[in-house]
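In response to the reviewer comment on reproducibility (Comment 2.3), we provide here a single inverse folding case reported in full, input and output, so that an independent group could reproduce the run without further information from us. The structure tokens appear first.
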């Protein structure tokens, strides 16, 4: 894709500032401020990037307000991040679109319902009772188990596995190699051995959920594991049986949520966060990376550390820990001084 700066401004609905020669320059890609060249557009979403703009070779810049110190063509928009998303879509690689129909190598059971516009890729296996909604895409090597349902305009990338009795909503994206509906990790120690507890429930993935690569979402023991509408899950996340997340949660890479925990709406879990079983986390709570949540959390909290505590308390705790080596040296010096003073007193006696 090649657009002039002026054409890009029109596509974004942006106010354009720049001279006639510069706004006719062709733009072919998007790049960060420091890396952008003359044929690339960049963006400034905050003050810390303004200074770097003066050293940038970008052909144009997307901003929320005019930057007087810059002589580059400026595309002024209400929301830089929204404009950036649209710009990245415009200049996305021109990959071949999925083709409607069922690849000859796919194995599809006889009583499957597949709506119009669906694309089923090579070596896909679809079992009895599956239903797939309009314009959904099933990538190569996927497996969809018995009686599972996939809504409209959803996409399963290559090698995704959907077990039996799972319900995937509309406009859902599941990236490659993720597994939905696997048996949860639940055992009882009986007669000297760990015996697996049957997991007879299902998984419900609500509308507009996006799931990264290599994620695992376990099926419930009874009832359903539920991922709320609009939730976004990063790569390598483990969500255990009977977990329920609210709407529009963000769960970052390598996080793990143990069985029967509940997340409210808008909860954010940073990378490598661990949530113990049967924990409830209130709406809007944010948990910093590598924290461990072992107690219920009210709404609106900001937590860090393990066990997870208030972020400010965690920062003070870290500050004290970092001071421990110095404090240890001071204590040693004080102890030595006391010994010297006590020895001096003994000599006087």
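Designed residues, in position order:
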């Amino acid at each position: 894709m090649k657009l002039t700066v002026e054409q890009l401004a029109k596509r974004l609905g942006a106010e354009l500032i720049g001279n006639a020669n510069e706004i006719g320059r062709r733009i072919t890609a998007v790049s960060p401020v420091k890396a952008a060249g003359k044929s690339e557009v960049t963006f400034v979403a905050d003050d810390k990037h303004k200074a770097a703009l003066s050293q940038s070779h970008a052909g144009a810049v997307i901003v929320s307000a005019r930057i007087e110190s810059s002589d580059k063509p400026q595309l002024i928009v209400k929301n830089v991040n929204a404009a950036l998303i649209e710009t990245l879509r415009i200049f996305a690689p021109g990959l071949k679109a999925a083709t409607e129909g069922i690849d000859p190598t796919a194995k599809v059971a006889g009583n499957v319902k597949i709506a119009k516009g669906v694309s089923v890729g090579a070596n896909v296996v679809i079992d009895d009772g599956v239903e797939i909604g309009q314009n959904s895409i099933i990538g190569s090597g996927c497996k969809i188990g018995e009686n599972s349902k996939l809504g409209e305009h959803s996409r399963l990338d290559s090698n995704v596995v959907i077990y039996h009795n799972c319900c995937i909503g509309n406009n859902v994206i599941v990236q490659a190699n993720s597994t939905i509906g696997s048996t949860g990790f639940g055992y009882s120690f009986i007669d000297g051995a760990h015996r697996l507890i049957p997991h007879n429930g299902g998984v419900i993935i609500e509308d507009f959920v996006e799931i990264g690569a290599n994620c695992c979402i376990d099926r419930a023991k009874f009832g359903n594991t539920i991922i709320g509408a609009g939730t976004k899950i990063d790569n390598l996340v483990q969500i255990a049986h009977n977990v329920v997340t609210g709407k529009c949660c963000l769960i970052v890479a390598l996080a793990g949520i143990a069985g029967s925990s509940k997340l409210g709406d808008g909860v954010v879990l940073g990378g490598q966060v661990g949530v113990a079983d049967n924990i409830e986390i209130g709406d809007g709570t944010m948990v910093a990376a590598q924290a461990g949540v072992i107690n219920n959390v009210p709404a609106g909290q900001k937590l860090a550390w393990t066990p997870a505590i208030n972020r400010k308390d965690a920062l003070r705790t870290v500050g004290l820990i970092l001071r421990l080596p110095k404090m240890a040296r001071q204590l040693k010096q004080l102890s030595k001084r006391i010994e010297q003073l006590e020895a001096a007193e003994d000599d006087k006696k």
